[in-house]
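Team,

Forwarding the record for the chain on the shared tracking sheet. I've put the sequence and predicted structure together so nobody has to dig through attachments.
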Amino acid sequence: MPITEDDQAKTAEPQAKTAEPQSTITVLQTTNVELQAELAANRKKKEMKALKVNDNDLIHLNIRGQKQLTFRATLCQARDSYLAKMFSGRLEESLERDEDGAVILDFNPEYFGLILDYLRIRKIALEIGKPIPLPEVTDDQLEHFNNLVQQLGLSGIVPKENAPSSKLGQHSPGATV
């Protein structure tokens, strides 16, 4: 018995109904992937868009629960450092903040405090042309301190010689960041 056009239409109809939801799902999945890519690109553009920043902006920091306040210029002294990249304005909106709006940094607060104090002293010392004393770090702190300095891209402030407990009052004549 020959297949009529009616028979072909009846056979094709269930296949079309099955294919239609599958093609709709494929279109929706493709659209979802495209939208996700567009959202990611927009987020990246937003992150990379530099905020208007000023060297005198106060930066609130939360270093493992210890609050610090400093100027943007203090953090951005070493142009290629991790701190300068974080606080140059380009990544500012993407930084994790606590409930008070302070930027959260998961560093050892004691070592970070030494580094921050050094950067403050360095800024003033450079302005008045005085030598820059290095941070005082004991033997047992030196390795961890040096690791944080390296991580922050501030290797110029790593003490050439550590300051053992008996020599805490001695300073190196200066260093560069």
